[in-house]
């Protein structure tokens, strides 16, 4: 799921066997993750609570699906995960597993009474790991959790549980501090077909990528170089707890900005309004662990329908943490320069538009406003204290 090398995979296998495993599967799910999970999120402009781009949420169903497949191959009856009893991941892993194979039983140590009695928190776990020579990607001096995949890196827990404690500069793995980013902008052209990115061209260097995984990894590289994609938020977990998280989503941030811009050219106003609602539904369902639910199938198919004409190219610049759109073009554009022009009275040769028609349009759309405000004034007058002088005779 991540961007680490073969050496890391070898280390993971050695660690698993040392800890008592009899067999270790290490699967490269990066291509599947990009095409089967990231691309649907791009098409939906997925973003939870208007800020979180769902990097962890998207990865969980991809992992869970492969975990279930391996369990079925091995004839296993049990699955296990290390998610805590306070977070979202326990829900995501287990909901996905139940959807894909209801016969499998999940073991969740963080909900086991004996486990909780022995390990009160992260420090107990770190001490246990140190005692038994188990390497972990955390230290008492930097006590925060890290979850990373090729879409994003997230940081939470430990010192970050104080919402006033800023992230340290050295914490970030995917992006350069925008203040230290290059003083020259990077110019890219991203091409989409039916809402899916199919080509990226660096206009500065003429580097081109067309295959899904290399394309996405290159966007990560360029966005990271220019400090694009950082966010520090407090969000609402599905289990009812608010949590603070710091996220890096470099390539995903570029694609969301570019895709939204192209939709503005290619998608009808009312379709876009409904797609906005579908985007919110997609994000909530993904965040809460309902990836393999029938309602998610409905949302995805509806989003796919909305993307039939989202084809074209978007030109943009990356500069010190910002993504700036500088141009767009599409063979399926609904935009007409003649129709939009303030220098042409009508709609040009292709459209019969008479500005005088706007008078009736405004009048019709004002009818309900007139009725509502007339009633509002009447009710205010009826409820106002009487201004008549009291009778003294």
What can you see in these coordinates?
The protein has 393 residues and is of the alpha+beta class. The protein is 44% helix and 16% strand. The protein has helices at 6-18, 30-44, 55-74, 89-100, 113-118, 122-131, 212-225, 250-266, 269-288, 294-306, 337-340, 357-383; strands at residues 78-80, 105-107, 145-148, 153-156, 186-193, 196-202, 208-209, 230-236, 242-248, 312-319, 322-329. The protein has a five-stranded antiparallel sheet, with helices on one face.
Along the chain, the helix and strand elements come as HHHEHEHHEEEEEHEEHHHEEHH
Roughly what is the average pLDDT, rounded to an integer?
A: 92
Shape assignment: globular
Strand content: 15-25%
Span of the ends, CA to CA = 90 Å
* Helix percentage range: 40-55%
User: Structural class of the helix and strand makeup?
Assistant: alpha+beta
Characterize the biggest β-sheet: 5 strands, antiparallel
Low-confidence stretches: none
Radius of gyration over alpha carbons? 27 Å
Strand order across the largest sheet: 7-6-5-10-11
Tally of extended strands?
Answer: 11
Total number of helical segments? 12
How are the elements arranged and paired?
Layout: H1 6-18, H2 30-44, H3 55-74, E1 78-80, H4 89-100, E2 105-107, H5 113-118, H6 122-131, E3 145-148, E4 153-156, E5 186-193, E6 196-202, E7 208-209, H7 212-225, E8 230-236, E9 242-248, H8 250-266, H9 269-288, H10 294-306, E10 312-319, E11 322-329, H11 337-340, H12 357-383
Parallel strand pairs: 1-2
Antiparallel strand pairs: 3-4, 4-9, 5-6, 5-10, 6-7, 8-9, 10-11
Helix pairs in contact: 3-4, 7-8, 9-10
């Amino acid at each position: 799921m991540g961007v680490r090398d073969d050496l890391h995979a070898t280390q993971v296998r050695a660690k698993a066997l040392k800890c008592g495993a009899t067999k270790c599967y290490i699967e490269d799910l990066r291509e599947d993750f990009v095409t089967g999970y990231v691309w649907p999120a791009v098409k939906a402009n997925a973003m939870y609570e208007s800020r979180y781009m769902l990097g962890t949420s998207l990865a969980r169903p991809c992992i869970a699906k492969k975990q279930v497949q391996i369990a079925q191959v091995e004839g296993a009856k049990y699955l296990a995960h290390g998610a805590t009893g306070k977070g979202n991941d326990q829900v995501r892993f287990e909901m996905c597993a139940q959807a894909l194979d209801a016969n499998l039983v999940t073991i969740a140590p963080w909900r086991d009474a004996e486990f909780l009695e022995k390990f009160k928190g992260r420090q107990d776990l770190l001490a246990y790991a140190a005692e038994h020579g188990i390497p972990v990607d955390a230290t008492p001096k930097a006590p925060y959790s890290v979850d990373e995949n090729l879409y994003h890196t997230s940081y939470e827990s430990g010192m970050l549980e104080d919402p006033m404690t800023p992230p340290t500069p050295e914490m970030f793995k995917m992006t350069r501090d925008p203040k230290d980013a290059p003083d020259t902008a990077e110019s890219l052209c991203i091409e989409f077909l039916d809402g899916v990115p199919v080509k990226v061209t660096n206009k500065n260097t003429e580097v081109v990528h067309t295959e899904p995984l290399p394309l996405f990894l290159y966007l990560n590289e360029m966005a990271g170089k220019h400090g694009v994609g950082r966010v520090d938020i407090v969000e609402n977990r599905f289990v009812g707890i608010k949590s603070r998280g710091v996220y890096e989503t470099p390539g995903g941030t570029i694609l969301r900005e570019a895709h939204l811009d192209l939709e503005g050219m290619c998608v009808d106003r009312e379709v876009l309004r409904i797609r906005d609602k579908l985007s919110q539904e997609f994000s909530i369902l993904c965040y809460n662990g309902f990836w393999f639910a029938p309602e998610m199938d409905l949302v995805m198919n509806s989003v796919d329908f909305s993307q039939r004409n989202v084809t074209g190219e978007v030109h943009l610049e990356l500069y010190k943490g910002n993504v700036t759109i500088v141009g767009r073009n599409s063979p399926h554009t609904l935009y007409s320069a003649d129709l939009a022009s303030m220098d042409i009275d009508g709609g040009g040769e292709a459209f019969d538009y008479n500005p005088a028609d706007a008078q009736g349009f405004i009048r019709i759309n004002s009818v309900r406003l007139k009725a509502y405000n007339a009633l509002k004034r009447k009710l205010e007058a009826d409820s106002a204290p009487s201004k008549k002088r009291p009778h003294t005779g």
